[in-house]
Amino acid sequence: MSPMNAWLAVRGLRTLPVRLKAQEKSVLDVIDFLRNDPRIERIFHPTCNGEMQKDLANRYLKGYGSLLGVVLKDANPTIIESFVDALHHFTLAYSWGGFESLILPVFKGNNQDELEARGLALGQLRMYIGLEETEILIEDLKQALDIAYQVKM
């Protein structure tokens, strides 16, 4: 590792706890929004899989990560594509751990049979909540859901 890369790593580690706390608060706020939206079928996160799972997470974890899975209700390829395309503050990518919010659908246009064989839902998405303002992310998700389902709720 070069001296410059070492310095950059140390500099980033100094702010890591603050960034992780901010992302944890944001992901919990986003989950609260998603839980109340009828277009969301399921959320995959340690706080969302029943009381037993939440108790285990509270016992063994010091905090919650900002990566979650979401299943869109009654999703089809058009809904998935419309939803992802309508997002303005989520980048279509899979480099978890950065500062920007990311989204990645498990459906890639031609792998529906493979998803079913693996027990994955067609409308399943992976989301990483970054350091953007939570209200902006929630509003972005809401407007993208509205466009994808063409319903104002």
UniProtKB/TrEMBL annotation:
Q: Which Pfam families match?
A: Cys_Met_Meta_PP (PF01053)
* Protein name listed in UniProt: Cystathionine beta-lyase
Q: Which cofactor names does the annotation list?
A: pyridoxal 5'-phosphate
**Signal peptide annotation:** none
Q: List residues traversing the bilayer.
A: none
Cite the entry's keywords alphabetically: Lyase, Pyridoxal phosphate
Top-level taxon of the source organism? Bacteria
Classification from the root reads: Bacteria, Bacillati, Bacillota, Erysipelotrichia, Erysipelotrichales
